[in-house]
Structure formats: structure tokens, C-alpha cells
Amino acid sequence: MNATSSQPFALQGLDLSRVYGGFRALDGVAISVPKGEVRGIIGPNGAGKSTLMDVLSGRAASWGGTVRLGGRDIGALSPRERRQAGLARSFQKTNVFAELTIDEQIRLAARSVEIDNSAEVLDKLELTALRSRLAADISYGDRRRLDLALALVGRPQVLLLDEPAAGLTVEESLAMARLLRDLALEWQVTVLLVEHDMEVVFGISNRITVLHLGKVLAEGTPDEIRSNPVVVSAYLGSSVE
Amino acid sequence: MTSLPEKLIGAAAPRPLDAQRSKLPLLLALVVAVGGCVFPFVVTSTLTLSLLTQALIGAMLATGVGFLVRQNGMVSFGHALFYGLGGYILGVLVSRGIVPIELALILAIVVPTVLAFVLGLVITRIPGVAFGMLTLACAQAFYELALKVRGLANGDDGLAVTFPARIFGVPVSLLQDPHSMFVICWVVLMIALGSLWLLMRSHYGLLTFAIKANEERARFIGYETLVPRAAIYAISALLAATAGVLATFYNAFISPDMLHWTLSGSALIMAIIGGTKAVWGPALGAVVFFFIKEIAGDATEHWPAVIGGILIVVTVFVPIGLSGLLVRVFSGRRA
Ligand SMILES: Nc1ncnc2c1ncn2[C@@H]1O[C@H](COP(=O)(O)OP(=O)(O)OP(=O)(O)O)[C@@H](O)[C@H]1O
Ligand SMILES: [Mg+2]
């Protein structure tokens, strides 16, 4: 972190909070991610991981605090404006256009951004053969990849991925993990990855942030997190040694 | 059963519509469009033509209502607002001689469209039934206005409109004779349907359809969603206003009935009977509606009950509407 402290972080959230009916889903969270880093975000159910994604992407407003993209304050921007500024996201619950063909929705996504890399994205996510099919008619795994593809169009600078491997088979999850790691290297895209699949997170993250009850419990390299006694007792238990 | 193109494309079957996409529907559309223009030379009965002209005007209104359903997924219970407003603007301005008839015509179409856009920016944010109720409330407000403000157009009694002899050099009498008016309405309707068809195939058409399918995701792939929604609402209002203008020319009469919710309801029923997936569905529904009304109306004064029965049958057994049924039958597609 010292090396990059003079230059702006790719994505930075400071003092982010969100309350749902008196419950602090997010409580003064700070997160700073340097360019090109894959940052894993883990934590038990209800820890506030998706809420953090929502606040960063503009789906939900933060109660105070700041969101910066490449040093620019984007806290007041709409999801559309954040997307056009280079911040893209996928969703925990598959969020695609069921009534459109894959081709149509990818084309639409490409129209709103400057770089049209749709052919490359379709190819990388192995969706090319399915391009004329309706999203409603493809398999769950294909729809998860489509959700990711919609975020990848336009080569965003920062990707917020909320459990991209949820519901995938072990093989599919690992393929997705490889893909994300390659993208981070190849495109220098910064990735925030919320994931319950520990093998995926620990396998590809440069650093990991642990959320617990809306607060940052710990942050560090995968090795540090694995051996952090607080994290182990609060979350990891004996699942990762 | 497998056709040659299907074999060539192989396992990754395209969506059925693409497979059927040939020149045939376009050719058919052309034949129908031209056929309609020569229709009055074949069927010369003034009564039939008059009924059909009314049906075409209804078709225009229903097309607006149906397009809103198709493209925005929104059900309007108040499209009579734009129909009546178009009629009232034309009728009142012409009767008072405030502006030339040409300008009155333009205003009668532009004002409701702009109003719908502005209104749409507010009400198309509101989902489901609440949106329908709001459209109903807005339309009823204008209905009350037309009813209560007698100075505007004689309130309940309505206003007989006296037109100048010509508009854009064309004799206005042509707009009141069913033989010529049928052709005019037909041409206007064909232009409207053709334009909507092109719009649907454009980027904007795809975008609005996507917003209907998943508004949140549309925002997250970088689109503003409110203006497109309001724009579709405005386009559907434009169609309704055009229908109102045609009706005012044809009947040379305006009354609060043009703003009443029963008209909005009928237009919605036409759209449902015809089906909204194809642009021409609601128009077909309108023609069917008028014929049922005519035939059943001769037999019983309870003709709305017959329409109601048909509506139930269609919604339960053919939710895709008559147009959907026709497409299915003619494309030989299995259910
Ligand atoms: N829209 C909402 N309305 C009310 N409460 C909400 C809402 N969204 C989230 N919450 C609550 O906020 C807390 C954090 O939810 P969040 O979805 O961020 O957790 P998460 O870490 O993503 O959990 P999971 O691993 O199950 O996805 C939960 O207790 C949840 O019930
Ligand atoms: Mg979550």
C-alpha cells in the first residue's frame, strides 16, 4: 500500500455506512484498492458484502462517506454515470435481460461505452455459440457468465463482482477464477470480488478484506487472513487452515 | 420437419422469429397496405365504410395503447386523455378561428405528445396498477374539465365544429366522406405501423424493450431509463392524439365522451384482443371489436357483455391475442 499511496487508488470507499430499518448493514467501512489488484471480500451471510457493492456501484446511497474512482469523487453519480466512468458490476442474483438474445444485450451494453470489445468478451466467456439464443433459454451457468459479460463489455477500469461463482459447479467456478485472474493481468482491471467459495477467493486475490457485522474485521494478504486468529474464530473456523 | 437453414445453423438454434425472418411477412404487409387503399372501390356501401373508418380511428388509438404495453410493459387506463385533448385542441381552435387550421392541426398533435412526455417523466417511474390509476385520474380530470367548463366547448352538449373549406389545400369535405376518409385513415395507420415497426428494430427500440425487461440492469450497463420510458409514453400519446384528430375531422364534433374512461377501456380491450406482441395486433383487435359491437349491437343492447365474454376467452385461452395466434398459425410454429 505504501508504494501506491502517492497515486490515487483505482477505487476507494471511505466511511461508508448504510442503515436498514435501524440495522447497520454497513458501518463506517473504508476500503482502498490499488489499480490492477484483485481484492477478495469475504464474510458471513449478512456481513454487508452486497451492501458494500451496492453503495460503491450507486445502487444504494451511502449515509455519508465518499466513493472515489481513480481519485475522482463519484459519490453523487448515478449508476449510469459510474458505469460510463469505468465502474461496472455484476449481481449476486443473476440479473440479465431474459427476453433479449445474448447478442442483443451485449450489443446494447457496448453502445453505452467507448470501447466495443463485445466479440472478445463473448469469446472469453464462451458465449459466442449461444449469441442468438434468448437469455431465458440458456443454462444457469451460461446466465452467470452472461451477467459477468455484461459487466466486462467496454473494458471497465474497476469490476465489482458479487459472488460470480454462486451456484456454479466446482469446475465452472475454477474456470471463472482463472478467467478473472487473466483479465486482471491482461486488462489491468481492478477487481472487487465477493465470494463464498474460499478456494476461488484465496486462489486469485492479491489481498482480502473481511467484513463482519457491517465493519471491516481484517485486511491482508491471503496468508495473513488465513492465519489471523480473529478472522478464523469469527468466520473461517476450521474450513481453511 | 427440419428446414435447410435450420440444418445449416445446427444445434445453436436461433430464436424462432429469426428463423422465419423471410421476405414473406414484408410482402404480406405491402399487399395489405395497398389492398386497403383500393378497398373502398370494391366495397362501396357507405354504411360499411363508415363503420370501418370508425374502426380505423379506434385502431390508431388501440395501437398507441398496445405499443405502450409492448415497449414499456405499462397499462394505461387513460389514453382517452390524449385522444380527447387532440380533438379538443383542434375543435376549439378551429371553431374560435384563433389560429389557421393547419396550425391547429399541428398543435392538436404536438401538445398532447409534449404533455405526455412531461407527464411521463413523473408517472412512468411508478410501477404496475398505481401507474394505471394515475393515467385514469389524469384523464378523468380533463374529462371533468371539459364537462364543467361550458365556455370551452358547451360542456356536456359538445361542440359541432365548422371547418374551413380547405386544409393544406385539400378539401376538408374529403375528411368527412367515408369513401375518402377510409383511405386517409388507412394510409395514416399504415404509416404509423410502419414507423413503429422501424422504431422497434432500431437501437432505441431495443433499449426500451430492454428497460422493460430489466430496468435495473439497463442502468448498470450505462443507460438512463426514465427518458426512454417517457419517450415511449409520448409516442403512444402521439398515436392517440392522431386518432382524436382524425375523429374530430370525420365527425366534425367534439364532446367530453372523447375523454371518458370507457373509451380508454375500450382501447385497452382492443389491444388485448388483438395482442400486443406484434405492432399490428391492437389494430386488428380494434377492427374485430367494432364488428362484434356492430353485430352484437344489432341483436342485443347488452353488446358490452359479448365483448366482455370474448375478452375473457382471449385472456384465458389465447393470451398472445389474435395477432399472436395468426403468427403462430401462419409460421407453422408449434405452441
Ligand atoms: N434492501 C434491504 N432492506 C433491508 N435490509 C437489507 C436490505 N439489503 C440488505 N439488508 C440487510 O443488510 C444486511 C447485510 O446484507 P448484505 O446483503 O449486504 O449481506 P451479504 O454480506 O451480502 O450476505 P450474503 O453472503 O448472504 O450475500 C443483512 O442483514 C440484510 O438483511
Ligand atoms: Mg450478498
UniProtKB/TrEMBL annotation, chain A:
Domain of life: Bacteria
Domain ABC transporter positions: 11-238
A Pfam family that the UniProt record links to this protein: ABC_tran
GO cellular component: plasma membrane
Source organism per UniProt: Bosea lathyri
Record protein name field: Amino acid/amide ABC transporter ATP-binding protein 1, HAAT family (TC 3.A.1.4.-)
MF (Gene Ontology): ATP binding; ATP hydrolysis activity
UniProt cross-references to SMART domains, sorted A to Z: AAA (SM00382)
Automatic annotation (TrEMBL), chain B:
Topology versus the membrane: Multi-pass membrane protein
Subcellular location: Cell membrane
GO molecular function terms noted in the UniProt entry: branched-chain amino acid transmembrane transporter activity
CDD domains, per database record: TM_PBP1_LivM_like (cd06581)
Short name of any one Pfam family annotated for the protein: BPD_transp_2
Keywords linked to the UniProt accession: Cell membrane, Membrane, Transmembrane, Transmembrane helix
Keyword Membrane: yes
Transmembrane intervals: 24-43, 49-69, 81-99, 105-124, 181-200, 230-253, 265-292, 304-327
Gene Ontology cellular component list: plasma membrane
Residues in the signal sequence: none
Official protein name in the record: Amino acid/amide ABC transporter membrane protein 2, HAAT family
